[in-house]
Every structure is written in structure tokens, then in C-alpha cells.
Amino acid sequence: GDSVTQMEGPVTLSEEAFLTINCTYTATGYPSLFWYVQYPGEGLQLLLKATKADDKGSNKGFEATYRKETTSFHLEKGSVQVSDSAVYFCALSDRNTDKLIFGTGTRLQVFP
Amino acid sequence: GAVVSQHPSWVICKSGTSVKIECRSLDFQATTMFWYRQFPKQSLMLMATSNEGSKATYEQGVEKDKFLINHASLTLSTLTVTSAHPEDSSFYICSARWGDGYQPQHFGDGTRLSIL
């Protein structure tokens, strides 16, 4: 079945550092891909999305490109802030089951 | 846009009582709503999927008599944890979606349920 694999955390960075969180997927069809962010004690917020190959999703300085050839959707940000500290989930929509399949989440900790 | 409100955000109750959690889509009509459970430092576990006006579809291993889901309108779904016990203590999160599976799900802020 479809699946999402993302890098284990925690990822620890200093403020203004460059961020990459890797995400790869396995899917039989052409899913939509998402990044969600979860701040402590809260639900998930949609960060960005891409619906087809080569699409680039971007929001709040974060971006990710739907790479069909490498089945990847890596999250990047050029300069992280302390306020970006959260757990980031990569997810795909499963066309066959109509469900959202999540990766295990990556905790990001940014220190001043 | 795409705001989902979940209420209550935190509830503590005695073992054996029933607890109802509401999930509302405030600025869009949700054709499908989902209920998840999240254990500490883990990903979300899908419990059930519900479409307005029809019975919910439960994931394997989720007791439908224990977790009652009602999706009465395009903007409201409820989850009732019946005869709750300490092992039901968890963080419950709902989400709502308009359209098909290519559309994103929009999540509520979650409900932390503690059963004493």
C-alpha cells in the first residue's frame, strides 16, 4: 500500500540556519502531497501542498517540490526562527482509499 | 479560510461517563470529516471517516459502539466516547475536507481527554 517515510528527529538548529526535512513516498497512483505542522498541544495546520509532479508548494518561507522521479517532497526553509519549532508531518492523499497517509513526524527544535 | 473548530479543548471526567466532542467547519461545507487519535510523540491514527448523512466507516480495531460518530450536517460531526475508561485517555483530533481526496484536510485544535 501507499506509504510515507520522513527523516527521524529531532532536528536541532540554530536560528537563521537552513532547514531540510526529507520526505519520500510510495504510491501506486498520482497522489496529492502535503506538509502539516503541529505546535505543542494543538491540532495540525496545513503548511503547504502540491497536487501534481513538479508543483512547488510554498508558505511562510517554507517550500517543497513534488518530485515524481525521486518520489520525494522534501521540506526546506532558508532561515528558520525559534517560532518554527514544532512537529512537521509529511502526508499523501491515497486516491484509492481516500485517506490521508502520514509520515511519523519530525520534531524541529530551533534555538536562539 | 478553512477553519475547523473543535470543542472542548480539554476534558477531565470520571471513569464510566460518556464524553461528546464536537467538530465544526466554520467557513466551508465539509463533505467528509475524519476522527484521529494521537498518542504522545506519535503520528495520528485514523479512527473513522464520516460523510454527511451516512454511517461512519471505522478503521480496523476501532470499536464502533465505544466511539459513536454522528455527522448530522455538512458543518458538524460529533464523537462520543461512551463509558470512558482510563485507557481511552488520549488526544483526539478531527479534520474536515471539502471535495475529493486530492483536497487537503483541515484540522481542529484537538481535544485532550483525561479519564480518572
- The SSE order of chain A reads EEEEEEEEEEEE
Low-confidence runs of at least 5 consecutive residues of chain B: none
Tell me the greatest interface.
A-B, 24 and 25 residues
* Shape type of chain B: globular
Shape of chain A from CA axes?
A: globular
Measured distance between first and last alpha carbons of chain B: 37 Å
Specify Rg of chain A, calculated over alpha carbons: 13 Å
Number of strands of chain B: 11
How large, in whole angstroms, is the Cα Rg of chain B?
13 Å
Helix segment tally of chain B: 0
Q: What percentage of residues of chain B falls in helices of 4 or more residues?
A: under 10%
Q: What kind of assembly state do the chains in view correspond to?
A: heterodimer
Mean pLDDT of chain B: 92
Report what the structure shows.
- The complex is a heterodimer of chains A (112) and B (116).
- Chain A has 112 residues and is an all-beta fold.
- Helix content of chain A is 0%, strand content 50%.
- Chain A is built from no helices and twelve strands.
- Chain A has strands at 3-6, 11-14, 19-21, 23-26, 33-38, 44-50, 56-59, 62-65, 75-77, 86-93, 100-102, 106-111.
- In chain A, the strands form three sheets. In chain A, strands 2, 5, 6, 10, 11 and 12 form a six-stranded mixed β-sheet that branches. A four-stranded antiparallel β-sheet of chain A has the order 3-9-8-7, with no helix packed on it. Chain A has a two-stranded antiparallel ribbon with strand order 1-4.
- In chain A, strand 5 (33-38) and strand 6 form a beta hairpin.
- The N and C termini of chain A lie far apart (41 Å).
- The mean pLDDT of chain A is 93.
- Chain B is mostly beta strands and 116 residues long.
- The relative contact order of chain B is 0.33.
- In chain B, the strands form two sheets. In chain B, strands 2, 4, 5, 6, 9, 10 and 11 form a seven-stranded mixed β-sheet that branches.
- Chain B has strands at 4-7, 10-13, 19-25, 32-38, 44-51, 57-58, 67-73, 76-81, 90-97, 106-107, 111-115.
- Chain B is 0% helix and 52% strand.
- Chain B starts with a strand and ends with a strand.
- At the A-B interface, strand 6 of A face strand 5 and strand 10 of B.
